[in-house]
Design brief:
Elements (H helix, E strand, L loop, with lengths): L1 E3 L2 E7 L1 H18 L6 E6 L3 H10 L5 E11 L2 E10 L9 E9 L3 H10 L6 E9 L12 E5 L5 E2 L15 E4 L5 E6 L6 H12 L2 E4 H10 L3 H12 L5 H13 L6 E5 L5 H13 L6 E6 L2 H15 L7 H15 L2 H7 L3 E5 L4 H12 L3
Helix pairs in contact: 1-2, 4-12, 5-6, 7-8, 9-10
The protein binds adenosine monophosphate.
The site of adenosine monophosphate (AMP) has 17 residues, from helix 5 and helix 6.
Length: 368
């Protein structure tokens, strides 16, 4: 295990595995370009080690140049890409092969392709040492890649975490074992959102409320908001497909969180399974599911009160509230067994003062 700034990383790929992958790409490109002299264009900074080893493994005459783009800040892909070092000049009529260290969402790639669109190159190919096929947007064909890897945050062999780790000969992955991921479970009005606000500060967690994300989208008139509105207005659940995708993108926006509080998700068996699979793909998992229990009459009184203050229409109508309880009883309550089987289910009395309930939740969390 190594430490870079505030994070810990564990070994992921050895020097030998990396070198084999580099040689694999060099062999394949060499077979395709034996009869001409291609220009390899490395993408700085991350690809400098790859380019160096690649060229040593490339057996035919070739040229090399570099471009420099900048899109990552810390662990987060900001989507802002800047050109810091521009194209080589003599590329007209030539075959250009981009050498990237890693392809993840494909945003940097889009900018790269854009850079080459108004040039008269003969051919433009993309080679990447690592390729995260699970999250790649698929816009362009990746012509050559060394290794397909899961969606882990990796450092080493040119790749950095806040500029550290580039000099490592091996690849390391972020160690997620210290994370706390909680699912807050309970009927509407049980106090999930209220408690999440306290827990998130206490344990430095990122709070994701799917209901809040939907309401934010509705307020801003997004496509997602328009789609969700008709369901939410009736007190029905939004379809799994939509909700799961949204949840995943909220998690992806916070790669350096110390953990997550999932509030209002999962609400169906399909969502629970999707969450487990998604977290597993990131070497994460749900640590505990905590249910806040309260009876329907208390909840209805709370929701009607909340509806007056927030203006939420689904909180102001007893029929809609009852429909949400029905949705909960038929689709969400069965998840209790799902988490019990994994020994992750905990139940907490949700009636009392806010502070008392926080205290009860804290006791459960401090067990692990
Ligand atoms: P909440 O704020 O958690 O009570 O959610 C308000 C409404 O948003 C729900 O009644 C659903 O229509 C929708 N919603 C929130 N989370 C989910 C979810 N996990 N699955 C489906 N629909 C959801």
């Amino acid at each position: 295990m190594i430490q870079l700034h505030d994070k810990f990383f564990k070994p992921f790929l050895s020097e030998k595995e990396i070198q084999q992958a580099v040689k694999g790409i060099a062999d394949r490109i060499a077979a395709d370009y034996a009869d001409e002299t291609p220009i390899f264009v490395g993408v700085l900074n991350g690809s400098f080690m790859f380019v160096s080893d690649f060229l040593k493994a490339y057996p035919h005459p070739c040229e090399v140049s570099f471009v420099k783009l900048s899109s990552y800040q810390g662990l987060t892909s900001t989507g802002i890409v800047e050109t810091l070092l521009d194209l080589p000049e003599n590329i007209e009529g030539r075959s250009v092969i981009i050498l990237e260290d890693i392809i993840d969402t494909g945003r940097t790639l889009q900018e790269l392709v854009h850079l080459f669109t108004n040039t008269n190159v003969k051919e433009f190919k993309i080679a990447s040492l690592f390729y995260k096929s699970e999250i790649y947007n698929g816009e362009y064909t990746i012509d050559y890649f060394g290794l397909e890897i899961p969606d882990r945050f990796i450092v080493g062999y040119g790749l950095d975490y806040k500029e550290l780790g580039r000099n490592l000969k091996e690849i390391y992955q972020l160690n997620q074992k210290h994370m706390i991921n909680l699912v807050l479970f309970g009927k509407p009005g049980a106090g999930k959102g209220t408690q999440a606000e306290f827990l998130k500060d206490k344990y430095n967690l990122k709070h994701i409320s799917t209901g809040d994300v939907f309401r934010y989208n509705i307020k801003n008139g997004t496509e997602l908001g328009t789609l969700a509105k008709s369901y939410i207005d009736k007190g029905d659940l939004v379809p799994d497909e939509v909700t799961i995708k949204m949840l995943e993108s909220e998690v992806d926006k916070n790669p350096d969180a110390d953990g997550f509080i999932f509030d209002g998700f999962p609400r169906t068996a399909a969502q629970a399974e999707a969450l487990d699979n998604f977290l597993e793909s990131k070497d994460m998992n749900v640590n505990a599911t905590i249910a806040l229990e309260a009876n329907d009459e208390v909840l209805i009184a709370r929701l009607l009160e909340r509806g007056k203050i927030s203006g939420r229409t689904d909180d102001q109508d007893v029929d809609k509230i009852r429909n949400r309880f029905d949705e909960y009883n038929t689709k969400t309550a069965p998840l209790k067994e799902y988490y019990e089987e994994q020994h992750k289910f905990h139940s907490v009395n949700g009636i009392g003062s806010i502070a008392e309930i926080t205290e009860r939740l804290t006791k459960v969390i401090e067990q692990f």
